[in-house]
Specification:
Elements: H1 2-16, H2 21-26, E1 32-39, E2 43-44, H3 48-58, E3 63-65, E4 73-74, E5 79-86, H4 87-117, E6 124-126, H5 136-145, E7 159-161, H6 163-169, H7 172-182, E8 189-193, H8 196-205, E9 209-213, H9 217-227, E10 232-236, H10 244-248, E11 254-256, H11 259-262, E12 269-273
Parallel strand pairs: 6-11, 7-8, 8-9, 9-10, 10-11
Antiparallel strand pairs: 1-5, 1-12, 2-4, 3-5
């Protein structure tokens, strides 16, 4: 909660800075108000606890309540939550609260679409590190709320040998060998491959997970056949909602989708005084 409070405090300072001029001009006295958060389109809800925390950072007197929970499927026109408190405090927190709720709900909503698209296959949808700086923890939370799974959180909790590591180390075999000597036994090694020959090399080198980067459907199918269930296979690159079902049907275990967090559309949600 401490890291969330720091994030919220920074966002509030960014918005309010030396003061909310409009609110100070319009409201010269304390005035109680009630507000409703309303969905303006169908969505998967994510971030209710964040909205509540935004208002609590402005005033502990604000009450925030909802009959819904994160992960709920909300329809256009539904009331998401209600808030009550001093009107000035509600107005100062409105934009920050909505920005976070809209973005997290956007991530959960698009993730749910990808998960639904591959339903019935053995693949799972995972995110990437292509997140908004400072929001990674929240955005990866929203992916889980949408039914997806998390890839590594950062550079510190997983080994993923990519093309530049391979070039710097002098090849896949050398890179995997050095990584195996360095890491504890509890960590797996994933290797990014761009050709079927590299898939063969990664297998021979002892990779635990093989990523197929920007391969065609035919190449993915061939790679899965080569691996024959010995290690996990991840498809990455060029994944779209229209194409994801076909990718899943090649037999890969994991499909990583950068679009879940690098370019989701924020959902349309409004706050209105009652």
């Amino acid at each position: 909660m401490l890291s969330l409070d720091r994030l919220i405090d920074h966002a509030l300072r960014e918005d309010i800075h030396t003061g909310d001029i409009t609110t100070k001009a319009v409201l010269s006295e304390q005035r109680p108000a009630s507000a409703r958060f309303i969905a303006k389109e169908d969505l998967v809800l994510a971030g209710l606890f964040v909205v509540e925390r935004v208002f609590k950072r402005l005033s502990t007197e604000i009450t925030f309540a909802s009959s819904l929970t994160d992960g709920a499927k909300v329809s256009n026109g539904d009331i998401i939550a209600n808030a009550h408190g001093n009107a000035a405090d509600l107005l100062m927190g409105e934009r920050v609260a909505l920005n976070l709720l809209q973005r997290l709900s956007g991530i959960a909503s698009i993730t749910a679409l990808y998960v639904e698209a591959i339903k019935g296959t053995k693949a799972r949808i995972v995110d990437t590190r292509k997140t908004t700086p400072g929001l990674r923890e929240l955005e990866k939370y929203a992916v889980r709320i949408g039914g997806g799974f998390n890839h590594r959180t950062g550079l510190y909790d997983g080994v993923l040998i990519k093309e530049n590591h391979i070039a710097a180390a002098g090849g896949i075999t050398a890179a995997v060998s050095r990584a195996r000597d360095y890491i504890p036994h509890t960590l797996k090694i994933e290797v990014e491959t761009e050709t079927l020959d590299q898939v063969d090399e990664a297998l021979a080198a002892g990779a635990d997970v093989i990523m197929l980067d920007n391969m065609t459907l035919e190449e993915m199918t061939a790679a899965v056949a080569k691996v024959a269930g010995r290690v996990l296979v991840e498809a990455s690159g060029g994944v779209t909602l229209e194409r994801v079902r076909a990718i899943a049907e090649t037999g890969v275990n994991i499909i990583s989708v950068g679009a879940l967090t690098h370019s989701p559309r924020s959902m349309d949600i409004s706050m209105r005084f009652v």
